[in-house]
Amino acid sequence: MNPTVDFYFDKAKKWQQELEQLRRIVLDCGLTEELKWGVPCYTLKKKNIVLMHVFKEYCALLFFKGALLSDTNGILIQQTEQVQAARQVRFTNVREIAELEPILKAYIHEAIEVEKAGLKVDYKKSSALVFPEEFKKELAGNHALKAAFGALTPGRQRAYNLYFSAPKQSKTRESRVEKYMQQILDGKGLND
What we know:
By secondary structure, the chain is α+β, with helices and mostly antiparallel strands. It has helices at residues 6-11, 16-27, 94-116, 133-141, 143-151, 154-165, 170-185, and strands at residues 32-36, 39-44, 47-54, 59-63, 87-91. The protein has two domains: 3-116, Aspartate Aminotransferase, domain 1; 133-185, no CATH class.
């Protein structure tokens, strides 16, 4: 256990027991505990293997190269269709974790072997971004916004595009664009 990570478990309210149990399981597999992105991350020779995170409805173990795991038990979940490598195992109570403990350990050991073998996820090339009309209009009329958006990393541009394009109603797309214009001008990504 890494004492610098303890605060994460201490501050957890809703999922504290589940997180403690997951922590024990992962540490039993011989990984190094670190704090990355504000959450517990477990590594092998500085390579990310798995991390824990919480949501309103569940807590989860996220396997960084989960797409390469065999998933013989069908428990890995692809968060969204845009996520290419990572896969989650979601939990809503301690009992589920206890029942899956041997399977989770097997998956963690498989993830370790994937990393040791140097396997890489074959990422699909991203297609050209197709922006919603509401955002195109703003870019055309605001040269500072266009320049700031162009200076963002491709990943940040893609995140904004996905977020702006998601709503069905034009009014909602417009409000999202308006809400994030200043953040784009400040050179920040959607989640920065």
